[in-house]
Amino acid sequence: MRGWHVPRYRKRVHETPLRIAFTMSLVSSLRLFVLMTATLAATAAWPASRIKDIDDFEGIRENQLIGYGLVVDLQGTGDTLNNSPFTKQSLQAMLERLDVNIRGTDLKTQNVAAVMVTANLPAFTTQGTRIDVTVSAMGDADSLQGGTLLVTPLIGADGEVYAIAQGPLAIGGFSAQGAAASITQGVPTLGRISNGAVVERELKFRLASMTSLRLQLRNPDLTTARRIALAVNKLIGLPTAEPTDPATVRLTLPRDFDGNIVDLMTDIEQLRIELDLPAKIVIDEKSGIIVMGQNVKVSTVAVAQGNLTVTIAESPIVSQPQPFGEDQPPSYRAPT
Questions:
Q1: 196 with 152: CB under 8 angstroms?
Q2: Which residues are CB-neighbours of 318 under 8 A, at least 6 positions away?
Q3: If both were cysteines, with which of 78, 129, 229, 246 could 220 make a disulfide (CB 3.0 to 4.6 Å apart)?
Q4: How does DSSP assign 127-138, residue by residue?
Q5: What is the pLDDT of residues 89-103, one digit of tens each?
Q6: CA angle 142, 144, 149 (to 5 degrees)
Q7: pLDDT, tens digit, for every residue of 98-150?
Q8: pLDDT for 159-172, tens place per residue?
Q9: Is the pLDDT score of 251 beyond 80?
């Protein structure tokens, strides 16, 4: 590719050094603009993303935990025991485990609330690690402000206890009332305990002993799955990866593989591939925001809604800019 060619100037009486310098600066600016436009167009046309940003490895994920417990010290904003029998039964059972017999007595406290406790157990979490928990009221409590969650086991989908939660709640909302008015801001019956649960059981998942892996695409696509398999095979040097469906790429480790599987997964995550996204337009009717991909092409169309009609048509118009002055600057030749 040849460089930009600026012809020699013939000496004229009306040409000044200022005019020559201006022309040279214009040529340089145009050249830089063309190069930047070509670079941006190439980048937009061929987006490259890391596999780490578009895929998930099978088994490396969070697990949901849930538990039922009691929150105390609510200063009269807890459940009404007559309207929430499960709160009364839970309070009686807890006190009996502490050798306090209250059978047959009439409980009227409103400082206790029954709650559901939820948490996410991250992958490869070891015993003793602390995780955050979310506490939600179940009964007719007005607020959990100032409450403390008592010891609550958190179980998984298999019924096993994986963590124990306990601690004071942090509430994002509040509720206040007076003689003639009341105000509620946020959700006062929803709280959170930062590092409020201690992991007691680890997940039985041994990554180092696996002989095959599956990569799961977050946005399933046949072309993208095939490109991922080709990139992985090029990295390893053997046809070990193959797409099984638009959302899954299966990787079988070679028999003579003697490396660390974690190192291999790290190298795979850093591979960059070109995404193949469908032409899609997303329209938010409420906000009026329209988002479209780079492959979208809008042709001649007419849209009618009620008594409003929108027409999109193409009208080619040639625009000829005016010269710089009486004498046009010398022309330049584009690269070939």
A1: no
A2: none
A3: 246
A4: TT-EEEEEEEE-
A5: 899 889 888 888 887
A6: 140
A7: 888 887 777 888 899 999 999 999 988 899 999 999 999 999 998 899 899 99
A8: 999 999 999 999 88
A9: yes
Phi, psi of 229 (to 5 degrees): -60, -40
Strand pairing partners for 115?
A: 69, 137
pTM over 0.70: no
Rounded to whole angstroms, the Cα distance separating 106 from 242 reads 68
Structure-block tokens of residue 173: 């909302």
> What residue has token string 């070109």?
274
In angstroms, the CA 136 to CA 131 distance is 17
CA distance linking residue 200 with residue 50, whole number of Å:
35
Residue 89, H or E segment: helix 85-97
Q: Give dist(CA 249, CA 57) in Å, integer.
A: 10
* Complete domains list, the chain, with CATH: 49-58+206-274 (3.90.1150), 63-199 (no CATH), 281-312 (no CATH)
Greater model confidence, 296 or 50: 50
Q: Is 320 exposed, middle or buried (0-12, 13-18, 19+ CB in 10 A)?
A: exposed
Distance CA 152, CA 166 (A): 6
Residue 192's closest CA among 212, 213, 173?
173
Please tell me the distance from the alpha carbon of residue 159 to that of residue 170, in angstroms, as a whole number: 28
Residue 180: the pLDDT is 65
State how far Cα 53 lies from the chain centre.
10
* Structure tokens, 180: 């003639």
Per residue in 293-328, pLDDT (tens digit) is 777 877 777 888 778 888 877 777 766 666 665 555
First to last CA, the chain: 6
